[in-house]
Fold this sequence. Notes:
By secondary structure, the protein is mainly α. Helices cover about 50% and strands about 10% of the residues. It has one domain: Arc Repressor Mutant, subunit A, CATH 1.10.10.1930. A two-stranded antiparallel sheet has the order 1-2. α3 (about 50-60) crosses α4. Bound molecules: ligand C2E (3 copies).
Amino acid sequence: PSGSEPATKIVINLERLQQLPADKVGPLARYAAAIQSQRGDYNGKVLSIRAEDLRSLSIIYDMTPGELTDQLINWGVLPPEARPAG
Ligand code: C2E
Ligand code: C2E
Ligand code: C2E
């Protein structure tokens, strides 16, 4: 079924992320900030993260990776094309 597949290319829209309420995106925002810090990558409007990180985040959000992908697309944090065609 469409909308249940995890994103394969995860490119987070950092500007959108900052506009959303912390009670929704807090864990994701902290995770992204930690990766930016580890890389020393502070200048981007977007941040590419590992597929493995989506799996870790889905545990934090108590969702499947596919469900979290849908949530991130609904929030505008991932572009709709992040969801694999199927
Ligand atoms: P792309 O992967 O489609 O990324 C397009 C642009 O999005 C990048 O242009 C960059 O401005 C931004 N971007 C994507 N992910 C990140 C991120 O995690 N942090 C930051 N700060 N910006 C990000 P850019 O840098 O000129 O790169 C152009 C293309 O060069 C990329 O297209 C990709 O195909 C390649 N590239 C750049 N860096 C890497 C890399 O570390 N690994 C690989 N495999 N390709 C890279
Ligand atoms: P590390 O995992 O030991 O990776 C060391 C270096 O290998 C990285 O330095 C980067 O230059 C390169 N590297 C590893 N995997 C990839 C990859 O899939 N794509 C690309 N383009 N390069 C890769 P960097 O970027 O300074 O990161 C330093 C450390 O920060 C990493 O050490 C890792 O522990 C952490 N880190 C950075 N970005 C991420 C991320 O997106 N997810 C996770 N889980 N950790 C990250
Ligand atoms: P990318 O650099 O185009 O890498 C695409 C895929 O190639 C990665 O998907 C991973 O499966 C593999 N890969 C690339 N470099 C390495 C490496 O040094 N070690 C290993 N074990 N695998 C590698 P993945 O993991 O889903 O990452 C997606 C994108 O997230 C990467 O695209 C890159 O833009 C970013 N990324 C992931 N980890 C790091 C990192 O440590 N540092 C930086 N700067 N970017 C990273």
